[in-house]
Amino acid sequence: MLIHYTPMNEWQDLLEQLASCCSTTEAKTKSKNIKPSLNRQEIEGLWSQILPLQKLANLGYEVHVGDIQPVKSILDASQKEQILTGEDLRCIFDLLETTHRVHKFSHDFSHKCSTLASFEKSLNSIPELRKIIDQCIQRDGTVKDDATQNLLEIRQKKISLRKRIEEKIQSMFQREEHRTYIQDEYFTIRSDRYVVPIKLDGRGRVAGSIIDTSTSGQTLFIEPEQIRRQNESIQEIELAEKLEIIQIFKSISERVRAESNPIENNYDALIRLDLLSARSRFAKELEASPVQISETPIIDLISARHPLVRRENSQRAIANNIGLNKQHKTMIISGPNAGGKTIVLKTVGMLQAMLKSGFLIPAEPSSKMYIFENVFFIMGDSQNIEQKLSTFSGHIKSIKSILTKSRSKDLVLLDELASGTEPETGAAMAQAVLESLQKKKILTLATTHFERLK
After folding, report:
1. Residue 182 · residue 201 · CB < 8 Å
2. Binning pLDDT at 50, 70 and 90, where does residue 383 land?
3. Rounded CA gap, 92 and 58, in Å?
């Protein structure tokens, strides 16, 4: 059954505002996909985690997770015994660094915040793995020279050999018999070998092997005979370097695989904390609080405010007291156009959706709300061209669906009930609908302009 708590665009706007309070990409995504589907135990469980964070924020301390990249695909690759890339390992390091920072913050404030005390126990920054990644891998994912003693020696040897090769080439440029045929006094690398450019007519006059030619074919790239052995040595050294780097990546990847469960737990915990912190910040913006959850169908909202209605200069929106209970099951709201009738319905619908999603509520803490099983909301133009229904016919079809499906534990919100037809007929129909809902003991709010209905 599709239940409309309030216009979907307004609900999505609310979730977008919550998402803007999140640090992590995944928490933002989760925020935008929240559904009003929680039971009382789940709602109160969320509140018990949000409120301590809110109290800590009032003292001037907030935990900021910061953005962290998803690691599931990296951990999946490690479980398949794949060798992780340098970028993957730095991603793991960043997660562990964030874990370390948040764990320290949680430890420092655990005595003031039960939520952080709980997260302190669930976070493990795995210091040994964090240290080895930082010692071996640069921020850009490349391997540091001193990642291992063997790699350091290989790279030092390669630098020394390259220097000797370049010195030999420079001395070659100074020789008179070569100057005539050398295209330019520079060297380059082709096919992983040092080469010098010579003119086409220099072929056979400069001792060496042709490695490549220019696009025009007028320049030959020669590996001079006097550096051939050094070129081969360079290739051997580079192969040894590649093997050593692979071994480094393999070794650290194995460590990641061994710690994949606590790494994943850290990620999940940080996302949860980011969401809770976002809910806390959002509640502070709305001046929201927990309300009393009733065991029986009731609405007793005191100073309730629509969460998307803000006044200029950060002033509160105009609040409303809204009450429905077993003695007064139906409320009819009337007044001039643009007087705020529809906003009252939207406020009730939105606050019910917020309740069932675990949000704190922009109303006084003494307010009471029941967790309705379903909320039926009819508002605006119900015209359906594809089904060839007029506005009024579409409206009547929606009302019929509500009368058929609604039960005593549901809430019905009707905007401009039975509008779109002649006033006497519309008022009579509206009266019949409200009496039917009253007979079924369903709490109902309806707006109207019909004098007869009032």
Report:
1. no
2. very low
3. 33
The count of C-alpha atoms lying within 13 angstroms of the C-alpha of 34, restricted to the half-sphere facing its C-beta, is 24
Structure tokens at 70: 């998803």
Is 98 in a helix, a strand, or coil?
Answer: helix
CA dihedral 234, 239, 245, 249 (to 10 degrees): 160
Give the residue from 94, 5, 34, 40 showing the smallest Cα distance to 278.
34
What pLDDT, in 10s, does the model give residues 297-344? 999 999 999 999 875 555 667 899 999 999 999 999 998 877 788 899
Our measurement of the distance from residue 111's CA atom to the centroid of its chain's CA atoms, rounded to an integer in Å, reads: 29
DSSP state of 83: P
Q: 392 in helix, strand or coil?
A: helix
DSSP H or E segment with residue 300: strand 299-304
What is the distance, to the nearest Å, from the Cα of residue 351 to the centroid of all Cα atoms in its chain?
A: 24
Question: What's the CA dihedral at 361, 105, 135, 90 to 10 degrees?
Answer: 0
Whether the Cβ atoms of residue 209 and residue 181 lie closer than 8 Å to each other: no
Whole-angstrom Cα distance, residue 136 to residue 157? 19
Number of Cβ atoms within 10 Å of the Cβ of 72: 11
- Rounded to two decimals, the pTM is 0.85
376 class by beta-carbon count within 10 Å (0-12 exposed, 13-18 middle, 19+ buried) = buried
Token duo for residue 408: 């005593």
User: What's the rounded Cα separation, in Å, for the pair 270 and 64?
Assistant: 10
Nearest alpha carbon to residue 352 among 365, 366, 362:
362
Q: Compute the distance between CA of residue 432 and CA of residue 404 in angstroms, rounded to an integer.
A: 14
Tell me phi and psi for residue 268, to 5 degrees: -60, -40
> 425: which strand partners?
none
Rounded distance, CA 189 to CA 197, Å?
A: 10
Residue showing tokens 């704190």:
360
Q: What share of the chain is helix, strand, coil (3-state, %, to 5)?
A: 50, 15, 35
Q: What are phi and psi of 336, to 5 degrees?
A: -70, 165
E strands within 313-401?
320-324, 330-333, 368-370, 375-378
